[in-house]
Amino acid sequence: MIPIAEPFLGQEELNNVIEAVRSGWVSSKGRFIPEFEGGFAAYCGVNHGVATSNGTVALHLALTALGIGPGDEVIVPALTFIATANAVTYTGAKPVFVDSHPDYWCVDPTLIEPAITPRTKAIIPVHLYGHPCDMDPIMSVARRHRLYVVEDAAEAHGAEYRGKRVGSFGDISCFSFYGNKIITTGEGGMCVTSNDELAKTMRILRDHGMNPERRYWHDVVGFNYRMTNLQAALGVAQLARLDALVARKREIAGWYAEALKPLADEGLLTLHPEMPWAKCVFWLYSVLLDGRLRNSAGRLLQELEAHAIEARPVFHPIPTMPPYSSAVAVGKVSSTISSTGVSLPSAPSLTPAQVSVVVRAVRSLSEERPT
Ligand SMILES: Cc1ncc(COP(=O)(O)O)c(C=O)c1O
Q1: Full residue range of the structural domain in which residue 141 is found
Q2: For the chain, which end, N or C, has fewer CB atoms within 10 Å of the first or last residue's CB respectively?
Q3: Ligand 1 pocket, 151 CB below 6 A?
Q4: What rounded mean pLDDT belongs to the chain?
């Protein structure tokens, strides 16, 4: 089986986990946690990292620290993983969905302003499949309307917008370290910010709302959203590999782009985009099927499966799914990307020979006689 994604773990990860086990610090105290938080925040170019048990709760923690709750609205892209919208729902606020930009699949910044109401409190731009959002217009609309920005960078560790790393634009930015992400801690997440007060609030909320000066005194209802030292032990070793893993993702994207270009030139598919202002990290290299292949995403997935190649459809637009189906305006662009998109194997272990097998399977579909 050629896997769609796979963690890249080595001796350093093993050494760190053994050290954590031997030290006895297996819960949420231990040296690896501050080391991972500080190292990852510095990597993003911000001052604080608050590690969490996964990326979904990182989003919930960020929104809660910003005071978002019932009666508020938060703008989220229609096309993202459901956790982005669910985190808003957990706070009691309402996610308001905005369509994608056709050229790079993330939220279309020109559609944000029309979605703003007096209840809007924040925008969550999602750097989808590793491609950064167009942050300048998003930040300027947020400034004009005094809205918070929470970047959802779960899929985009190391991606850059106009030479600046994602995670450094929002009031708070959230990452996931799930096993299929660019770096992993098994399960895990982190909120990063340069705002001292927000970092302090998130640390308190992450730890049951316990007053840092008075043990077992709780001023607010908090959560147990802490990361363990075992997870952070993995994280420290993974962080040292992050640049190499990003370079590998980009190399794989280059192989796909070169091999699939003839099909793209024939108008049969759209390659995974990278805008001139972006450094995309191609979390999952994805293509859209066009022309006579337009309705073939399902068949392509079957064809790949028959060749023991793991692939997956692009996310469904969130407003098409039961929990959010009463939301207005699904969005034409996100619907098209979703119905024509396929994510191809993108594990760092992928070889050029395996990429050729994938490309042959895609090509064979284009050579089938139309039925
Ligand atoms: C865009 C996006 N946001 C949030 C998450 C949630 O992260 P986690 O799975 O670590 O809870 C994920 C991925 O899993 C994601 O892809």
Answers
A1: 11-99+106-242
A2: C
A3: no
A4: 96
Residues near 213 by beta carbon (within 8 Å), at least 6 away in sequence: none
Is residue 83 lining ligand 1, measured as CB closer than 6 Å? yes
52 lines ligand 1 (CB under 6 A): no
- Atom index in ligand 1 nearest the CA of residue 80 equals 1
pLDDT at res. 371: 52
**From the CB of 283, is ligand 1 less than 6 Å away?**
no
Threshold 0.70, pTM exceeds = yes
Q: Does residue 270 sit within a domain?
A: yes
Is the minimum distance from the CB of 126 to ligand 1 under 6 angstroms?
yes
Relative to beta strand 120-123, strand 189-193 is unpaired
Is 50 strand, coil or helix? strand
- Same domain membership, residue 170 and residue 66: yes
| 227 shares a domain with 203 | yes
Angle at 319 between CA 86 and CA 57, to 5 degrees: 10
Domain total in the chain: 2
| 83 CA from centroid of ligand 1 (Å) | 6
In a domain, 223, yes or no: yes
Whether residue 2 lies inside any domain: the answer is: no
What are the pLDDT digits (tens) for 19-49?
Answer: 999 999 999 999 999 999 999 999 999 999 9
